[in-house]
């Protein structure tokens, strides 16, 4: 009996253990753990460049999952699956390429995704099936090229087609890395840019567009230099006015619709001044205007021509003893009104006339030629006296016999070369003269006297002497002059202008291709105000002679018309514009003394 309580206790414990085991079994039987499901992908969407290339994926929810893990792989890039999002509480995710090279998606490859759920007990469910998402090969256009068309007025831009592209945008800039603007939108893979300017560098780049994917990146920019526009004009031959003295120059003027060539006639034993006219037409010919102007040989075989409205003036210094009172050259000015020549100022010795300039105003044999300018009905003359270093000026009131001395004081300029004295009249009717003696100075006549303005011009090359080859005031009164300087370094010919504060060298000769020797240069302004033109004669490195016409404007120098090639020497050139503002050139062939005339035609 004593063992009964102990037996009862053992029995109680055994029943309790059996009960607890049975309860756990029943609980397991009637309330088992749920089976963990794998998410199922329901779709994906690829978004284009407009919002940054990315892939949106979404899947079905899993009961009991409090978050999801996303894994990504890319067999095309040899990338195995890796966890790219380990706590995503939503049932969708956007892949922008994080953890990829460059942190961006690569186009033209396939990405793979798998997802599994995370549960609150810290466990994970099974992975979903693999979702493959191919990215379109929507890459920027390739093989972009640009070509300047033969007309020189347009650039052809073309590229390879892009798969899935619906259209393309072409952008252009004059800088490589900024400043691009849209110039075209097209469905084609080429575009003709007709809005180009000459001598300009353009950069082009293109991207493709798709309504679903957006835009590709720009392709790499390419560039092109438009260079000089092609020369479509040509020179026509207007024939030869005659033969000029080898020592002389040829002056060309355009008056009343006709062209006039003035030169010392090589066919005449005294090399007297001859004037030939041409109507400017393609089939026209040269005719004599009525005998010789001078009685004998003129100084340096040169004559100065001035076209003023319908009147042609000629100034020269005659050496004939019968009219020069001792043999010193005297100045003559004559005018041509379309039918005959007549003297301008033909008084007697008691006044200043061009028939017999007073003895103290005779021109030096080695002096610069008389130079004329017109202001209304008045004429102005500047010339070098026989004292060599002194320059004087006269004016003529438009009628009567006599010229008047404008300033009682001569200009003591130092020794002046035999080049031209520059003279023109500004828009206020004031004469402006350019004089040189190793450097150049400008003078303006007003209130009865000449006064200097602007600063002295020196080419900086240590020149010993400077020759003025041409001088003019443009329509805005800006002075331009063509010059030659001689120094120990050699000869230099170029063009400069006064800006109002300083001299600006326009560096025209830098545009010429390897000139060996520059022979002559003339400058003239187109009457239509389109720019300053320069006619240049030079000898190239092959000893061939070339004549070119250049135009200067805000864009710099631009060659007008083709180069005129000449086998034999050319000593001088002169340029004018005819009544239709078309360029005309005359030049002298040194070996034969032939004078040639060429007109530019579009």
Fourth CATH level, the homologous superfamily of the largest domain: Fucose-specific lectin
The count of domains is 3
Please tally the helical runs, counting DSSP H or I stretches of 4 or more residues. Answer: 2
**Rg from C-alpha positions?**
46 Å
How many strand segments?
46
Helix-strand makeup class:
mainly beta
The biggest beta sheet, please? 5 strands, antiparallel
Pick out its properties.
5-stranded antiparallel β-sheet; 602 residues; Immunoglobulin-like; Neuraminidase; 2 helices; mainly beta
How is this structure best summarized?
The protein is mainly β and 602 residues long.
Describe this structure in words.
The chain is mainly β and 602 residues long. 5% of the residues lie in helices and 48% in strands. The protein has two helices and 46 strands. The strands form eleven sheets. Strands 3, 4, 6, 7 and 8 form a five-stranded antiparallel beta sheet that branches. Strands 11, 12, 14, 15 and 16 form a five-stranded antiparallel beta sheet that branches. Strands 17, 18, 44, 45 and 46 form a five-stranded antiparallel beta sheet that branches. The chain is rod-shaped, with a radius of gyration of 46 Å.
């Amino acid at each position: 009996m004593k063992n009964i309580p102990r037996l009862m206790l053992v029995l109680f414990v055994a029943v309790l253990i059996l009960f607890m085991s049975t309860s756990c079994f029943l609980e397991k039987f009637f309330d088992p753990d749920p089976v963990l499901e794998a998410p199922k992908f329901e779709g994906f969407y690829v978004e284009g460049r407009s919002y940054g290339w990315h892939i949106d994926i979404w899947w079905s929810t899993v009961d009991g999952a409090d978050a999801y893990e996303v894994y990504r792989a890319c067999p095309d890039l040899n990338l195995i699956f890796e966890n790219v999002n380990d706590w995503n509480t939503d049932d969708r995710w956007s892949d922008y390429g994080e953890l990829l090279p460059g942190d961006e998606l690569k186009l033209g490859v396939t990405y793979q995704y798998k997802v599994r759920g995370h549960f609150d007990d810290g466990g994970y469910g099974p992975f979903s099936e693999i979702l493959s998402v191919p990215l379109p090969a929507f890459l920027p256009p390739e093989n972009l090229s640009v070509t300047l068309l033969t007309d020189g007025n347009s650039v052809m831009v073309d590229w390879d087609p892009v798969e899935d592209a619906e259209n393309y945008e072409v952008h252009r800039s004059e800088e490589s890395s900024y400043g691009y603007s849209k110039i075209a939108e097209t469905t084609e893979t080429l575009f003709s840019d007709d809005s180009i300017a000459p001598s300009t560098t353009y950069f082009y780049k293109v991207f493709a567009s798709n309504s679903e994917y957006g835009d590709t990146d720009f392709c790499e920019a390419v560039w092109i230099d438009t260079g000089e526009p092609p020369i479509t004009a040509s020179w026509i031959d207007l024939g030869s006015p005659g033969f000029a003295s080898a020592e002389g120059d040829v002056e060309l003027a355009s008056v009343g619709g006709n062209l006039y060539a003035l030169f010392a006639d090589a066919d005449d034993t005294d090399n007297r001044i001859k004037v030939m006219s041409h109507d400017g037409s393609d089939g026209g010919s040269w005719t004599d205007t009525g005998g010789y102007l001078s009685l004998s040989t003129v100084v340096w075989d040169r004559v100065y021509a001035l076209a003023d409205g319908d009147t042609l003036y000629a100034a020269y210094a005659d050496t004939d003893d019968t009219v020069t009172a001792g043999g010193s050259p005297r100045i003559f000015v004559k005018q041509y009104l379309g039918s005959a020549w007549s003297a301008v100022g033909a008084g007697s010795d008691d006044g200043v006339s061009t028939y017999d300039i007073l003895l103290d105003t005779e021109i030096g044999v080695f002096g610069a030629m008389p130079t004329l300018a017109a202001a209304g009905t008045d004429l102005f003359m500047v010339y070098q006296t026989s004292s060599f270093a002194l320059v004087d000026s006269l004016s003529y009131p438009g009628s009567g016999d006599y010229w008047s001395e404008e300033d009682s004081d001569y200009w003591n300029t130092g020794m002046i070369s035999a080049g031209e004295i520059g003279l023109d009249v500004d828009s206020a009717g004031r004469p402006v003269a350019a004089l040189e003696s190793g450097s150049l100075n400008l003078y303006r006549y007003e209130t009865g006297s000449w006064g200097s303005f602007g600063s002295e011009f020196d080419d900086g090359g240590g020149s010993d002497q400077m020759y003025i080859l041409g001088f003019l005031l443009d329509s805005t009164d800006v002075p331009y002059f063509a010059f030659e300087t001689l120094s120990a370094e050699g000869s230099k010919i170029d063009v400069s202008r006064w800006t109002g504060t300083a001299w600006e060298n326009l560096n025209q000769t830098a545009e010429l291709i390897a000139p060996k020797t520059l022979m002559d240069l003339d400058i003239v302004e187109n009457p239509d105000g389109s720019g300053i033109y320069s006619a240049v004669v030079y000898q190239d490195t092959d000893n061939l002679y070339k004549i070119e016409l250049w135009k200067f404007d805000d864009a710099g120098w631009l060659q007008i018309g083709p180069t005129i090639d000449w086998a034999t020497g050319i000593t001088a050139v002169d340029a004018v514009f005819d009544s239709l503002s078309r360029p005309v050139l005359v030049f002298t062939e040194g070996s034969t003394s032939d004078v040639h005339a060429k007109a530019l035609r579009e």
